[in-house]
Amino acid sequence: MNDLVSDLQLLIRQPSVSAKKNGLLECSHLVKKIMEKAGIQTELLYLQENNTNNKSNNLKINSEIDSIYTIPPLIYGEVKSKRNPNGKTLLFYNHYDVQPEDPIELWENKEPFSGRVNGNYIYGRGSSDDKGELITRIKAVEYLLKSYGDVPCNIKFIVEGEEEIGSPNLEKFLLQYKEKLKCNGVIWEFGYIDEKERPIIMLGVKGILFVELISKGGPSREVHSSLATLIENPAWILVDALKTLRNNDGLILIKDWYREVRNFSQDELNILDKEPFDEEIFKKEYGISKFLNNVKGIDVKKFFEGKPTCNISSLIAGYSGEGSKTIIPYKAIAKLDFRLVPDMDPIVQFQRLCDHFRKHGFTEELLEINLLQKEWPARTTPVDSPFIKVIEESATEIFGSTIKSISSAATGPMHYFLDLLDVPCVCIGSSYKYGKSHSPNEFARLDLLNKTTKCISKIIEKFGSLNHN
Hints:
It is built from 13 helices and 21 strands.
């Protein structure tokens, strides 16, 4: 356990912010070193974009191979079972990049990359998402190798460096190294533990369409606000455009937006019906008194796991400093994320969004629409496959009980694995449900890291036994 904590501290203390392209190469080499120390054969994979091979995988940071490539490397790890080399293969997907640390002033001690341990908690960006999760998988394999000198099934790792910016190159990696990455099942990068210490086994993730709107229908520069009777304010144009997107009940008003939404199957509805969801604890954690549209009961879970969203992530216009500055801004910007569910296509939805604004009179001269990020939704079926049963049984043995969930409300590139590798993907992990991922003072609980390491070891053992059924 001490080794788990010290290795996680090393990873947290190495910043690796993909949005800022900060520390990614250094972190990839550090992960490689930790994996090799655990007995996992590891290499860095690069995209062949410059007609250069990747034979020099062991070169040091700032070496020639690193300077050639602009895309962070994919870390590939493998352990072949000695007693069962032709058996099943389990693949772990994780990422070594993290969210930006801002705002730093809201972190305790102003140290977002401290790896500080306080009692049962370890703090720092990536402690939960996703370096803590990665460490549990590495340590589970290390435990089996040290205890038995072997693993009961073949193990593979892929750890990418761009998940937090939408995995723009993961599909290319999977296509280029498809033969290398063949497997029979994928343990996804994260999983939550609820407030009653139960792991939540999630069978999918939502997709996302992230866009930027820039209103340019105003003056060519900031001007005095006394001119507001003569000059259009781009902030008003943007506000008017945003108001056309949804009604007060949260219903998205874009034509055909819900057209491809897949209804829950009866098996999925049965899972939703049994899934516990403590509404009062949830409200207390986020400081709210009611849910949007006053939804209750099973509808809360249906909305959370299977309803598309339209969210304004940021609004920027004019002066936002102290005091007053009476101006008409020359532009206004909004960033929006739309969470998507099966079988919505982010490219189709983006075109519908563009058509919607043009139909409402927001021409290209008034409103620029930029697609910043896209991810397809994914869901593993059937819900009672042998792979899912192995994970449920393993987690129950370690934690005592589990919760099965149809989908995470968050997003990840799971669809590539379902479509390109054609294997089931399941989320299970160590992150406390309210562990402040993506927020200041992100933390992981040491007891949950330890129990999840044991759970992953158990999954590997049971998955290996499927070879003989």
